[in-house]
Amino acid sequence: MDSNLKRSIMLEHYQNPKNKGLIEDETYLKINMNNESCIDEINLMVKLDGDIIKDIRFDGEACAICTSATSIMIDTLIGKSKEEAQNIIQNYYNMIEEKEYDPNILEQAVVYSDISKQPNRKKCALLSWWGIEKATKK
User: Fold this and answer.
1) For the segment 16-69, what is each residue's pLDDT rounded down to a tens digit?
2) CB 3.0-4.6 Å disulfide test: which of 9, 23, 62, 80 passes with 84?
3) Residues spanned by the domain of 65
4) CATH number of the domain bearing residue 37
């Protein structure tokens, strides 16, 4: 994927993030994630139906990378089983850490394949993914 298309996808998810805004519903798991080294603080709400991720919502204050990575994560994981999500999450981590990964299962999340060139931004791209991993392991 060329760098202009990557930037365009990131910008779209930053300006129009998926499922932004929390709701009052006790059936959702609630996770708070923050990055001590910057302003990023994300609150995630995850609704599971058995083994399936039915919904993910978020809110918080975050940079463009963190916000867009959260939106892309939501778009990628809703409708997936916990097992599928864990596989996608592990491949995403591998991509960020420049290890072997399958770009085909990452869908739009592959736009962060070059984030390793900016080591100080890795946490921004990972924060919400760490949160969803916690939720799917509960």
Assistant:
1) 999 999 999 999 999 999 988 888 999 999 999 999 999 999 999 999 999 999
2) 80
3) 3-137
4) 3.90.1010.10
